[in-house]
Hints:
By secondary structure, the chain is of the alpha/beta class.
Amino acid sequence: xxxxxxxPPGVAEVVLCGELDIATLDDAERQVEAAAxxxxxxxxxxxxxLTFVDSSGVRLVLLADDRARSAGRxxxxxxxxxxxxxxxxxLGLLDKLDVLPARPAEGAAHRxxxx
Length: 115
């Protein structure tokens, strides 16, 4: 479901794929917390590969954003063009979060299934 992705120096990225709901939340939280523990200046949570996200996933992003801001760091989300974008847009969160553009298909981060 989740995998760390390599990015530019100073950037940690967590790529979430599949569904992000109460059943998969614990794994996603562990991945985000592990990436944030390294105290990167920028933490990116990539939701563009999600086929479903519920309020649990939205809460995960909002809490991670609060923690990053409290620590003087930034959090950004990559929503893509699918379900995650529609959910965050419907909730009016696009202006409240740092939203990155979708990745070009060829430059997409390598996504790993949990092992």
